[in-house]
Specification:
about 110 residues, mainly beta, Thrombin, subunit H, 6-stranded antiparallel barrel, about 5% helix, about 40% strand
């Protein structure tokens, strides 16, 4: 079975932001590894199945308080190089235009070569 990928609608930006909690539970070691206005990729030790809702808190660059972001899991992959760790691809319920503002202000930077 061939998996078809759909083209991205918005640019994603590599980041390394600590996730404070996922679904109301502390999540030590969890990170946002890339983010866009429509979704994010998290690295975590908590596997979550696709279609499950997720709410997490993170401190976005240049902000003075935590942001609460919510969406649904689109995909999950185990990290082969790090047993017990997973990548979670999620789609936000509402666009996070704050991400684009932070990029324009230089608080989130584009990766070289993008």
């Amino acid at each position: 079975m061939m998996i078809r990928r759909t083209p991205r609608r918005v640019k994603r930006y590599p980041v390394r932001l600590e996730v404070r909690e996922i679904n109301g539970r502390p999540s030590p070691g969890a990170l946002v590894v890339d983010i866009s206005s429509l979704g994010a990729r998290l690295e975590t030790s908590q596997p979550l199945a696709p279609q499950n809702p997720v709410k997490f808190s993170v401190m976005l660059p240049g902000q003075d308080k935590e942001s609460q972001l919510a969406g649904r899991i689109i995909w999950m992959l185990p990290l082969l190089a790090a047993p017990g760790r997973y990548w979670l691809g999620l789609q936000f319920f509402q666009p996070q235009w704050e991400v684009e503002r932070l990029v324009r202000e230089g608080k989130i930077r584009e990766a070289d070569g993008q």
